[in-house]
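Obj: model holo form, ligand = magnesium ion.
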Amino acid sequence: MSIIKACIFDLDGVIVDTAVYHYKAWKRLANELGFDFTEDDNEKLKGVSRTHSLELILQWGGITKTEAEKEELATRKNDWYVEMISHMTPAEILPGAKEFLITCRNAGLKTALGSASKNSITILNKIDIAHLFDAVIDGNKVSKPKPDPEVFLKGAEALNVAPVNCVVFEDAIAGVEAAINGGMKAVGIGSPDVLSEANLVVSGLNEMSLEKLSLL
Ligand code: BG6
Ligand code: MG
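Output (holo structure tokens):
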């Protein structure tokens, strides 16, 4: 059992379900390039940075592009994605996420966001929960992708809490691994079969409680 002093939350798949917007934008790009992109393909991109996602998609499509072309393609995809998330509202917050953030803060726990997305701040503002985080570490502040623990270690540092006293909430395997690699506890959001390395797996933050945190 450990003493949890801070909770670090992944964004996509934990607080909001943006996977559908990423899917639509990547599919449009793949189709323009002349090949298909399925929901199964999209699953493999959860928690993966924009640049690396594009590398994988081009690989799946059997296409080679120059660095300048890749930059243009990533920008094109992001422009479509940003247009879609610009319509997001607080109604899209996943069940129990806002309530659990408030419960944590009322209990004196620190809260941080730890996401690979460079659009994190835009989304937090659209869904109106930016004020519930003491620190936001997003894709603009990290150089090493999950499962490297950089994003979460920076979160712990910003909160001034030792990694051993932090718990991370993650829906991606690489994210759970990043938490463990950083010496933190990991709560998986999703299926126990997939997130088997996590200390606890729940289907959503609506299943979380302070009691469950105290048992980690
Ligand atoms: C992660 C998503 O949170 O952010 C990935 O799970 C996404 O699917 C990554 O590619 C980067 O997001 P963005 O907004 O910087 O393109
Ligand atoms: Mg995620």
